[in-house]
From TrEMBL:
Swiss-Prot/TrEMBL keywords: ATP-binding, Nucleotide-binding
Full protein name: Nucleotide-binding universal stress protein, UspA family
Pfam families in the cross-refs: Usp
InterPro entries: Rossmann-like_a/b/a_fold, Universal_stress_UspA, UspA
GO molecular function: ATP binding
Domain UspA per the UniProt entry, residue ranges: 9-143, 154-282
Membership in a protein family: Belongs to the universal stress protein A family.
Length: 299
């Protein structure tokens, strides 16, 4: 999290899928942990039509439907966290563009990843995965059924020693501290090695982990830290880690073959198929491209 968005609200994308209410609860609890407000965001578009399909005042109808979605989400948020400050944004535009705009002034953006959800397909689909890559704040993807109170496993951070890993570690330590949970730092790398090469690589990567963790342990003495480092497919191993984790944290840029694992199509697969919420964090020095403005109707 950058210094610019400290104190800014947690924004959550809300669609008309009933499963989004679980995502709203997760986002509300995260906002309460941070002591900030919650911003409910709904983007809508009016589909093109021919003259024989004309529906009078279709924009008004779409806005009313969006208002109903936001009202239901507000009730869910206030039920989960009474006293939480909740605001709403009803905006004309596709969800990916609307959420990209909200990300500029958000502590983080939360989106559900439900199979066959229109919101999921738009935000994490092949044409709109740029939100994960380019948003200036962290993006958290919450899979269906992953946000229950029974999930008390560790926070898991996937690292590779890059600047993005440092940003991910900062987010992960903070998340573990706020939750009172341990942190597991995982470093996996590709490679077919001999036994001697494997031992040497393991030692090198343990040194890399120690260097990556320097300073974080001093700032978060309350967080119990464990780590794993071995040659393995990062995506497969991190997906397996997500089965027990409370939260999986990744960076948006890396080095070596981990770049292709955490960006591109495999990244979208991990974001959409992990069994716990996944936070994707970009380095503070990155500057995203400006987004096309959309029409807002905020409350």
């Amino acid at each position: 999290m950058t210094s610019e968005n400290v104190g800014h609200p947690v924004a959550v994308g809300v669609g008309d899928d009933p499963a989004d209410q679980e995502v709203v609860r997760w986002a509300a609890e995260e906002a309460a942990r941070r002591g900030v407000g919650l911003r409910l965001v709904h983007g809508y578009v009016v589909l093109p039509y021919t003259m024989d399909q004309y529906v009078p005042d279709s924009d008004t109808m779409a806005r009313r439907a969006g208002e109903a979605v936001l009202d239901a989400a507000t009730a869910t948020a206030r039920s989960a966290c009474p006293g939480l400050e909740v605001s709403m944004s009803l905006t004309y535009g596709t969800p990916d563009l609307v959420l990209a705009q909200e990300s500029v002034n958000a502590a983080l953006v939360v989106v559900g990843t439900h199979p066959h959800s229109a919101l999921t397909e738009t935000v994490f689909g092949s044409t709109a995965g740029a939100l994960v890559r380019d948003a200036p704040c962290p993006i958290v993807a919450v899979p269906r059924g992953s946000a229950g109170p029974e999930r008390i496993g560790p926070v898991v951070a996937g690292v590779d020693g890059s600047p993005a890993s440092q940003a991910a570690l900062a987010f992960a330590f903070d998340a573990a501290s706020r939750r009172g949970l341990p942190l597991r730092v995982a470093h996996y790398w590709y490679g077919e090695l001999t036994d001697v090469e494997r031992a040497e690589a393991r030692e090198d990567h343990h040194v890399l982990l120690a260097e990556s963790l320097a300073g974080f342990r001093e700032r978060h003495p309350d967080v119990s830290v464990s780590f794993v480092a071995r040659a393995a497919d990062p995506v497969r191993e991190l997906r397996a880690e997500s089965a027990e984790a409370c939260l999986l944290v990744l960076g948006t840029h890396g080095r070596g073959r981990l770049v292709s694992a955490l960006l591109g199509s495999v990244s979208r697969d991990l974001v959409r198929t992990a069994r716990c919420p996944v936070a994707v964090v970009r380095p503070q020095t990155d500057s995203p491209e400006p987004q096309t403005p959309a029409r807002h109707h905020s409350k």
